[in-house]
Structure formats: C-alpha cells, structure tokens
Amino acid sequence: MTLVEEYLQIRKYSEQVCEPLQTEDYVVQPVVDVSPPKWHLGHTTWFFETFILKPFSSNYQVYNDDYNFVFNSYYETVGNRVIRTDRGNLSRPGVNEIYQYRAYVDEAMVNFLANALNDEVRELLVLGFNHEQQHQELLLTDIKYILGNNPLFPVYVKDKKEVSVIQNEPGWIDIPAGVYEIGYDGTGFSFDNELNRHQVYLHDFAISKTLVTNAEFLEFIHAGGYENFNYWHSEGWDWVKSNHIASPMYWHLMDGEWFNYTLGGLLPVDLNAPVSHISYYESYAYASWKGMRLPTEFDWEVAAKHFNWGERWEWTESAYLAYPGFSKAPGAIGEYNGKFMVNQKVLRGASIATPQNHSRITYRNFFHPHLRWQYTGIRLVK
Ligand SMILES: [Fe+2]
C-alpha cells in the first residue's frame, strides 16, 4: 500500500466508526475523560494540519485560524487551547463543518503526499497514522460511554460483538528466571516510550493463558470482594467507597440478573467473555483475592509470545516510567508521551476496539488506576 492509500484508509475508518451516530451523539462529553466524537474528528485532522501541512507544505492555507484553540489537545508548544472539560460545551464548529475541515485537509494532504518526502516528514506522517488510530480506539470507547450512560441504552450497531475469535486453552505458562530483553528492536514504527531496548531480570513465574472471565469475576462479587478492604489498596478502597462501586462499569443488576451494556445494547452478562471495564484497583483486588498477582509489564512482554492476546487491554503491576536512555523528541512532538510518565499504570496488549495492526508486543498503553472506560481486563500471574 502506498502512503497516500494508507492515509486515506486510516482517515476513512475514523468516519466509519462514527457512521451509526446521530448528530447529537457527536457533541456531548459526559465525563472529562470522554471527548465528544466530533472533537476527535477535528483534533486528528488538526494534527496533520499542524505538524505536516503548516511546517512543510509551502503554499498551504490554514482552514481556520481559530481551530488551533479548539482542537489542540495538550501541546503547550503549540499554544493556548480550550480546557479539556469544556470540549463538550462547544456546539460550534458543528459536525458538518468538521467533516468539511476533514475533507479540506485530506485534499491538501493527498496533494502534498504526491511530492517526494524527506525522512522527517515520513516519520511525522507515520506518527499521524498511529495517532489517528489511537483516537479511533478512543472514539469507539467514548461512543460506548456516551450511549451506555444514556438511560435509553441506545444500540450502536445491532449484534456488535465485544469478544473476538481469540481462543486460548486454559492453563499456565512457566517462565524461567533470567535476564530478558525488553523494548522495541524492529525496523518499523514504534512510539518513543517503547525505547530503548534494555535488559531486565525476572524471577520465575507462571502466567495464565486466558483472561479472567465474567463468570470468574462474578465469584469475586458473590464472595464479597467489593466489601472486604483486605483485598484492596488504601487508595482503591477509598475509590470503592466514595464512588459506591460494586461491579464492573456497564453492569446493571435487574431483578436479580446481571445485564451489561455493550455496543450491541443492553444484554445479559456473557459469562464466558473476558471481564472488561474494570479499574487497576479492581484488577489488583481480584488478583489479591485469588492469592495471585498481576504481571509486571516485563513479565507480560516476555510471556506474550506464548498466548494469543488482543481482546482486552491488560492492567499490569508496572508504573508508567521511562526506559533507560529514553529521550523526548525536540519541539511539540516531544510532548506526545514523556510528560505523562507519572501516576499511571501500564496496560499491555490491545482490545477489540484497537484498529488492526496498531498494537505490538512492546506497545505500552497507560491510564490512571481508577479509569474503566477502556476495554480493560485481567490476566493473573502466580
Ligand atoms: Fe491526540
């Protein structure tokens, strides 16, 4: 596939994710972490305009000078911006205007990509592809949050599945103690946070081939897991109490039966599906109730070639920190990952919301420990 074809395919997919939406669904921001779908569509477009067209396309005319304020996410280098909590208060630019903005930038990009590209532009372009794919995952999970917190429980797509065909026979994989290589060492794209490749010593451990299922998580609920402080970190226990948490996000107990909001609508909990939409705190408490632990991100990276993964983002025990020799790129792009390396946990794998070929075995996702709106899951280590 040429770079232009890849560009167009990725850009089109973001719009396809939004096809089932009604106009009003594009606009709301029910919690700070969930951005309005139209904001994602505008922001990913702004990314190509700001980091490729403005600096490198000599005769490019900016679509609208005010959009930098509206669609800049967190780049201090690029100037002031609307505060994150206010993204859902922007009725303008409207959805149609944002689709026009996308079309304008796409046309300029296609013209620009017809030229020979230097290495710097090529790298920014591939970063832009990966950036938009990250937002495609967020689009889907944010849409789920928007619809799933509506009392009408609207269906996103009828029969939309939240499990994949990934199968693992139950069982454990033994990993011997030793020094292992961690981090990206290929020749393709990786994020800067996957570098540098370095050595880590691991003690021996056994890791489950399968993710914890809804049936298994129900046992934790029935055993009073949410009511016993012994399984929880102090911070996690405070979170459970102050937010009245008693089940995974999107679960509803109706007439004694557990239902689960899915992109296919409100359905009885699928007992065989991997549990999802749980916080790091809940993952830790579950493992602790089982007398086990979560893998570190290094355990996971070493073991993951021995099982199929990709249904759920898997919480690890690791803090999101820089690898040895990590360096930020100069300028705004240096703000992409490094400045978030505090108070977050690493997740490994991918989820059913992740675009194909976006993740890899060294990929590091990261979220604050209380967050649950991604397709998160649990894999145990003993
Ligand atoms: Fe972004």
Any overview of this molecule?
By secondary structure, the chain is of the alpha+beta class. It folds into two domains: 3-148; 172-377, Alpha-Beta Complex (paralog of FGE (formylglycine-generating enzyme)), CATH 3.90.1580.10. The protein contains nine helices and eleven strands. It is globular and about 65 Å long. The model has no long low-confidence stretch (mean pLDDT 97). Bound molecules: fe (ii) ion. Fe (ii) ion (FE2) binds at residues 43, 73, 131, 135. The site of fe (ii) ion has 4 residues, from helix 5.
Protein traits:
four-stranded mixed β-sheet, DinB-like, 2 domains, EgtB, globular, binds fe (ii) ion, 382 residues, alpha+beta, three-stranded antiparallel β-sheet, oxidoreductase, paralog of FGE (formylglycine-generating enzyme)
